[in-house]
Amino acid sequence: MRIIVSGGGTGGHIYPALALIERLKQVEPDTQVLYVGTDRGLENKIVPAAGLELKVLHTQGFKRSLSLENFKTAYLFLKAVHDAKKIIREFKPDVVLGTGGYVSGAVLYAAAKLHVPTVIHEQNSVVGITNKFLSRYVDEIAIAFDAARDQFPAAKVTMCGNPRAQQAAANANSDFSWTSYGLSDAKPVLMIFGGSQGAPKINASVVQAIPEFSKRDYQVVFATGQKRYDQVKEALKDVKVGSNVKVVPYIEDMPAKMPKVACLVSRAGATTIAEITALGIPTILIPSPYVTANHQVKNAMALVKNGAAAMITEDQLDGRSLLVQADRLMEDQAARDQMAQASKKMGRPDAADRLIKILYKAIADHQK
Ligand SMILES: CC(=O)N[C@H]1[C@@H](OP(=O)(O)OP(=O)(O)OC[C@H]2O[C@@H](n3ccc(=O)[nH]c3=O)[C@H](O)[C@@H]2O)O[C@H](CO)[C@@H](O)[C@@H]1O
């Protein structure tokens, strides 16, 4: 299969695309892939690292309020559509897949106008602005939460889950060792990260809690987000950080490491949730209150209701509340086991295979 994949900006849109590609190459080893992203997003780091060719377009998001900047955005969109058409004509894909982010708006719109089969994947329960716009033009829409169904044209929608779940499940028996982080494999690890880019309030709370974490019998791996690392290091300059606590900018190859985590603290982004439920990882979710229609709270509540996660809302978050919840789980294996079981029941470990079927369907329907 020749496939163009486009999704950009944050890890939550990029990792599902990469997981799909990894699986597609297992099913069809001669698959040819071109990734189209923005010139600024995390894809510039993640996609080449995965050994894929990346072409970039310059786009930006529309402001919700009336703004002069929106004229520039509209111009950039039209230019990006024009450039995307050129890329599509040259690459001649059998199908184009969009996984969200502004750049996928231009690429999928261009593909639809060129009558190339198109599929979009929506990771969230509340549909993103780009996918909402594209839903009129594309052939097929794959969703990961039932709640997204009614927000799209019914005939195009198929439940599939998030391909990153299948990748996570496939790595469940990972042989990763925490010794590469200077930690022990004999003691449980609490992993903390605020989404793919880090989150200021989570970072500040972890900084407050570090003197106590440093006295615990468990270990802590804390990712600050690439751009926030220096700031956190500065805040920690007079704090004695125990040898059981590791502070890093970013955690690479998460599917290898997540199975080796006893408990996780994280934002409630859809892709993170797909990973933790695929593996059944006890998690304390801290939903971001800064996202469209508060969708992370909805993502989180779906798990909390089933006993699959605990939640701290951002307004209740500080070093103290974080520590209390973390201790409660890290010091109670039975509570962790119970949460793990409930979480795993919600996982969709065949999501990539389902998405591949949807790609085949879009291609076949065009050949009729
Ligand atoms: C602020 C914002 O707009 N967030 C959105 C964005 O979040 P964001 O990009 O943070 O999305 P997710 O939480 O869904 O995904 C984060 C991904 O990054 C990985 N990871 C994270 C930290 C790290 O150090 N290393 C690493 O590999 C995680 O394992 C996961 O695969 O996209 C998600 C999916 O569309 C949405 O649900 C989120 O609401």
From TrEMBL:
Pfam families: Glyco_tran_28_C, Glyco_transf_28. It comes from the Bacteria. Residues 3-142 form the Glycosyltransferase family 28 N-terminal domain. GO terms for biological process: carbohydrate metabolic process; cell division; cell wall organization; peptidoglycan biosynthetic process; regulation of cell shape. The keyword Zinc does not apply. GO terms for cellular component: plasma membrane. It is a peripheral membrane protein. It is found in: Cell membrane. Its EC number is 2.4.1.227. Keywords: Cell cycle, Cell division, Cell membrane, Cell shape, Cell wall biogenesis/degradation, Glycosyltransferase, Membrane, Peptidoglycan synthesis, Transferase. CDD domains: GT28_MurG (cd03785). Residues 189-355 form the Glycosyl transferase family 28 C-terminal domain. GO terms for molecular function: undecaprenyldiphospho-muramoylpentapeptide beta-N-acetylglucosaminyltransferase activity. Its main location: membrane. InterPro entries: GlcNAc_MurG, Glyco_trans_28_C, GlycoTrans_28_N. Belongs to the glycosyltransferase 28 family. MurG subfamily. This is UDP-N-acetylglucosamine--N-acetylmuramyl-(pentapeptide) pyrophosphoryl-undecaprenol N-acetylglucosamine transferase.
